[in-house]
TrEMBL record:
Protein name (Swiss-Prot/TrEMBL): polynucleotide 5'-hydroxyl-kinase
Alphabetized GO MF terms: ATP binding; ATP-dependent polynucleotide 5'-hydroxyl-kinase activity
SUPFAM superfamilies: P-loop containing nucleoside triphosphate hydrolases
Enzyme Commission (EC) number: 2.7.1.78
Residues annotated as domain AAA+ ATPase: 26-195
Function according to Swiss-Prot or TrEMBL: Polynucleotide kinase that can phosphorylate the 5'-hydroxyl groups of both single-stranded RNA (ssRNA) and single-stranded DNA (ssDNA). Exhibits a strong preference for ssRNA.
GO biological process, one term: RNA processing
UniProt-listed SMART domains: AAA
Major enzyme class: transferase
Keyword vocabulary terms for this entry: ATP-binding, Kinase, Nucleotide-binding, Transferase
Length: 355
């Protein structure tokens, strides 16, 4: 299921943009920016296919983590299309950078670094690098776009807008690349939040359609992206004290800059505690958490669903489509912030500071 498919039934200015891109000095990076449902991916698909027809080598960086074409969601991905394609969902990823969530407002730095790293890889092999971005163009999204543009330095930044709503963003990004503004096509259809969730559900389900449960030794593969496992283990006296104070079943815990506790609530438990002193993580919030297998270059080999952690033995059970050999190439198991089932059903998001 894809919202954007290849069509040449596009406004005339898309052909003018194509001509402009073909006249850029190569290799060239082109970043597409616009709000949700503005036609960014449709435009990218059109441009990529036409550039391929002209014999150019094309790279696609898909950083729309919530509405990914190139699987899986919650990552930034790079692909090199070898021939015509109907949608970017057909493209096979060459590399991923793990973000771990579909709402990247708290991951501005990771989003910018991911796009930068994959764009650098792309420019080594392609004549034109097309960079798709999220529809997040307000609030934190403005800073995210600025960081991406500053790091990547695109030769051309294409803004898709309806009524001048991106004027401020265009002015902000003007030092980092030549700007071009296009009107959003009248053929673009807005999708409801429910429709976007259904599209994502199908993407998750497709990615996890052929999985197996692997055991990950957390003493050998470093757990990252979380406060868990950092610091010294709690003493028995500390565990008993926390249990008595808050009526928690303390499953695991560590003392670093503050206490970090994995716990289950006992009946009548006290929920109030000072977060600057104690970070208390509910054990059930770790179930079905998205995790990324990270290689020694900091890139994501693939993602999995955390099913169980045995804290005593430092072993994790993870459901993933990655073959055992690739899992063995991971040096980190990075914790994400979305819980999802292999059926594609999303169980909810965690705040960044929650883990």
């Amino acid at each position: 299921m894809n919202k954007a498919t290849y069509t040449e039934d596009v406004p005339p200015d898309r052909f003018e943009l194509l001509e402009r891109i073909m006249n850029l000095e190569r290799p060239a990076k082109v970043m597409l920016i616009g709000p949700t449902d503005s036609g960014k991916t449709t435009l990218l698909t059109f441009l990529a296919n036409r550039l391929l027809k002209e014999g150019l080598r094309v790279a696609v960086v898909d950083s729309d983590v919530g509405q990914k074409g190139i699987l899986p969601p919650a990552t930034v991905s790079l692909a090199f299309p070898e021939g015509p394609f109907e949608s970017i969902g057909e493209l096979r990823a060459y590399a991923h950078y793990f973000i771990g969530t579909i709402t990247p407002g708290s991951y501005t730095g990771e989003m910018a670094v991911g796009v930068k790293r994959l764009a650098d890889m792309a420019i080594e092999k392609a004549d034109v690098v097309l960079i798709d971005t999220t529809g997040f163009v307000t609030g934190q999204g403005i800073e995210m776009k600025r960081l991406k543009a500053e790091l990547v330095g695109p030769e051309l930044i294409v803004f898709l807008e309806r009524n001048g709503e991106l004027t401020h963003l265009q002015r902000l990004l003007s030092p980092y690349g030549e700007a071009l503004t296009l009107s959003i096509s009248e053929k673009v259809r807005e999708h409801s939040r429910g429709e976007r969730r259904e599209v994502r559900k199908e993407k998750w389900r497709t990615y996890f359609s052929n999985t197996s449960l692997v055991e990950v030794n957390l003493s050998g593969i470093l757990p990252t992206g979380t406060e868990l496992f950092k610091g010294r283990p709690l003493t028995q006296e500390e565990r008993e004290l926390l249990s008595a104070l808050f009526r928690w079943l303390v499953i695991a815990g560590w003392k670093g800059e503050r206490y970090v506790v994995v716990k289950a609530e006992e009946e009548g438990g006290i929920r109030g505690h000072t977060r600057s002193v104690i970070n208390a993580v509910d054990f059930d919030r770790l179930s079905n958490l998205l995790v990324g297998f990270i290689d020694r270059n900091g890139l994501c080999l693939g993602v999995g669903i955390l099913k169980w952690i045995n804290f005593g033995e430092m072993k994790a059970q993870v459901l993933t489509p990655l073959p055992a050999q690739e899992v063995g190439n991971a040096v980190e198991l990075r914790f994400g912030r979305i819980r999802v089932l292999e059926t594609g059903e999303e169980l909810g998001l965690l705040r960044r500071e929650e883990l």
